[in-house]
Amino acid sequence: MEHILIPPHGNTLVNRVLSEAHAAEAKTRLAGKFSLTLDDEQVKDVKNIARGVLSPLTGFMNESDFVRVVEEMRLADGTIWSIPFVLDVSEEDASNMNTGDEVALQDATGNLIAVLHVGDIYGYDAAHVARFVYGTDDSAHPGVAHWQAMKSRLVGGLIDLIDNTKEPYYEVNLDPAETRYLFKERGWKTVAGFQTRNVPHRAHEYLQRCALELTDGLFINPIIGKKKTGDFQDEVIIKAYHFMIENFFPRESATFSILPARMNYAGPREAVLHAIIRKNFGCTHFVVGRDHAGVGDYYGTYAAQKIFEGIEDEIGIKILKFEHSFMCKTCETVATSKTCGHGDDVRVPPSGTKIRDLLSAGQPVPADIMRPQIVEMLLQQKSLFVE
């Protein structure tokens, strides 16, 4: 019997990556034409769209999709979608483009990344977007601040990717076609996606094991990219999870790939986006814990779980909802308030600040927070954190 994987969002896995021959022809065709320079986060957006990570998007949003996503959390055709993907341009750049034009998209070094087939060119109200997408117009929110700093016009249109390089970490940067092939080869009919931005600690390991109890395979998929001071280095996260998978999970029960993508810190709405992305990778389940993709105190602790009420079936991926986990000294195991009846005095939460402070000082993290083998491996690294 044929092994059929979960369909991608919108039922078609987008592929806007040009072949070598077509990429060469596009480079020749674009020579001397108007170009736009993308920042690193926009380059990630372009590549994720073209590789199908953001299926069914085939380019930056035209106005009809943009307006409906902002206000109703749906694309113009009614498909659930929670975060607008747009390309902002200045008034001057907008005046140099017309619908139907081909525009060269390049990175900061001048390297040609993609072709943009110009669609709509339109304006927007940043405060309006912020209130709907982030639930606040407070400029202290990083997502709101990002929209406030954007250029005044947006341009939509199809993308054709010319530069499909995956540096750095190309060996662990799989696109959805590749993960789907891997899952199929391993015979996984059900796959749990797990997102993280940190090295593995006991509480996360507990959630991963719970997810693996319910599915055939575990797909650990950390977001890699723009960092703030004190964050773990990307290569440290990669190395720690390789160590975890090789030493603590059953053989071929778990796999790992990075997700180069921007963080919007949109809380509930971003949880929906993250679930859709993992569905595109081939996951049938997705773990959503406390304060998923949140920042500060803008969202309720479990708001990212509640947003799926009434839309989970329509999205088509099963949401695994977990409460805050911790090590209970009396239970002598990792638990949540659903499974542990003891008080906070015997509960040891996985404090990210404590973990960072101890590792920065070259001191071991207590075994009830992080596995000693992981700690030992981390302490051997030359550089753990972004400075």
From TrEMBL:
Entry GO MF terms: ATP binding; sulfate adenylyltransferase (ATP) activity
Domain spans labelled Sulphate adenylyltransferase catalytic: 172-380
SUPFAM superfamilies: Nucleotidylyl transferase, PUA domain-like
Pfam families: ATP-sulfurylase, PUA_2
Catalytic activity: sulfate + ATP + H(+) = adenosine 5'-phosphosulfate + diphosphate
Pathway where it operates: Sulfur metabolism; hydrogen sulfide biosynthesis; sulfite from sulfate: step 1/3
UniProt keyword terms in alphabetical order: ATP-binding, Nucleotide-binding, Nucleotidyltransferase, Transferase
GO BP field: hydrogen sulfide biosynthetic process; sulfate assimilation
Residue span(s) of domain ATP-sulfurylase PUA-like: 6-163
Top EC category: transferase
Family from the record: Belongs to the sulfate adenylyltransferase family.
Protein name: Sulfate adenylyltransferase
Gene source species: Candidatus Kerfeldbacteria bacterium CG15_BIG_FIL_POST_REV_8_21_14_020_45_12
